[in-house]
Predict the 3D structure of the following.
Amino acid sequence: MDFLKPRLHRMNRRRRIYEGKAKVLYEGPEPGTLVQHFKDDATAFNAKKHEVIEGKGVLNNRISEYIFLRLNEIGVPTHFMRRINMREQLIREVEIIPLEVVVRNVAAGSLSTRLGIEEGTQLPRSIIEFYYKNDALNDPMVSEEHITAFGWASPQEIDDVMALAIRVNDFLTGLFLGVGIRLVDFKIECGRLWEGDNMRIVVADEISPDSCRLWDVKSNEKMDKDRFRKDLGGMIEAYTEVARRLGVIQEGESALAAAGPRLVK
Ligand code: UDP
């Protein structure tokens, strides 16, 4: 089995720092950097539901790259540096704040269930919610009181996180509306980026149809992970359509075709 050795060696070249449900983080080429790898795994209901959806990682890598690039351009700081290949991007290493920050414009999902507000109802204003990132506890919703009392973030950091969340929401709402998509809600994660003795809060993780609710403006058709959560089918087609409308992939191009060499006929 000696012939396997070089290959195994190559695969283990990079140290794996963290493996999540849909992504893996590897040690980056320079100190302070990481490689974020997008897998094809789709999970829901705290990973009780799991499937491999071929091509999803490639699409999320491209869509998230596009969104983070645009955010960086308008001065919203993020961890994103550059895309490396079809499934990977180079990011700055940050200290993740253990919160899922959800911004909602339209009632859906857990808000509809919890408060009995019909899905699709426009909210009187955008609402920010915090969930404590903890799979064992099922990511419980928490208030600013819990966050400061347990030291997950300081009051100043919460202010910074909320300001970022609002800027991302304003920007993304316009970006998606311009391509006929309603931004119902989304989740971001933030991290502390250390530059010498200075620290600033930046947007981290990913922004993709896995972490947003996106509805077609005309048909109200779901173009996000709810297609998987609710067994609606057509998840890859929907993600591909989001990527096409954003101009991330070209008309006629599929994520899988983009993922590897293309046959020249
Ligand atoms: N969300 C996410 N990761 C999570 C939970 C929620 O990306 O672990 C996103 C979800 O895709 C939606 C928004 O956050 O865009 C609000 O989700 P909600 O609280 O309604 O929870 P869900 O219905 O997904 O359980």
Summary: The CA atoms of residues 124 and 231 lie 30 Å apart. The domain at 2-94+234-258 is CATH 3.30.200.20 (Phosphorylase Kinase; domain 1). Residues 100, 102, 108-111, 139, 185-187, 211-213, 225 surround uridine-5'-diphosphate (CB under 6 Å). The chain has two domains: 2-94+234-258, 96-216.
